[in-house]
Design goal:
Acetylcholine Binding Protein, Chain: A, single chain, alpha+beta, 4 helices, 11 strands, 193 residues
């Protein structure tokens, strides 16, 4: 009897003292699609597209599509950005960018757009992360990682290969793979002019 009681106490202790990360699970699901954008000078930046799950999308639509026309106008897009996107700034917009292994600090974004998709059930964001990396004659390795270390947001991707808008660049290697539990990593190696 005492052995059984000790087991029950032990199991209860495990349950109630388990780290919060063990109990964490995603509440928002995003399909992410980055596009590496090159210009005459080098890697200009990365255009990122987030396609949200229906549940979170409906929250955005109900809160921000004030006129109910299933389209975001300019004012509504500003509200989406303020109320449903800017919070991600503290987490670098759930983005990790590495250049030859060095992590870019203080990621900024511009050209934010939000759309209600034709299905009228889901929302997509598109924004640009400036990088401004000049071409080098050596091979450059770039990684874009979409990940929320708190596991509140889960990132997936249906992208089969990297989207690359290129000028004067030779791609030598590219890959897409899962990162951590709920993240995705998009990488490429390239050689400039």
């Amino acid at each position: 009897m005492r052995k059984q009681m000790n087991r029950v106490i032990f199991i209860l202790l495990l349950i109630f003292t388990a780290p919060a990360s063990i109990l964490a699970h995603p509440h928002i699901f995003i399909d992410v699609s980055p596009s590496f954008v090159f210009d005459d000078n080098g890697l200009a930046g990365i255009t990122v597209q987030w396609h949200f799950d229906e549940l979170f999308s409906q929250d955005i639509i109900m809160s921000c599509d004030k006129d109910g026309d299933s389209k975001f106008n300019k004012e509504e897009i500003e509200n989406v950005e303020k109320d449903y996107f800017n919070y991600a700034k503290n987490s670098n917009y759930f983005s990790i960018i590495k250049i030859n292994g060095d992590t870019l600090k203080n990621i900024a974004v511009k050209d934010f757009q939000a759309f209600i998709n034709p299905d009228k059930l889901t929302v997509t964001y598109i924004y640009f992360i400036p990088v401004g990396l000049l071409y080098e004659t050596n091979i450059t390795k770039i990684q874009y990682i979409a990940n929320d270390h708190t596991t509140f947001v889960a990132f997936g991707s249906n992208q089969k290969e990297n989207s690359i808008k290129e000028k004067h660049v030779k791609i030598t290697k590219q890959y897409i793979k899962e990162f951590s539990y709920y993240g995705y990593e998009f990488g490429l190696e390239y050689k400039g002019k």
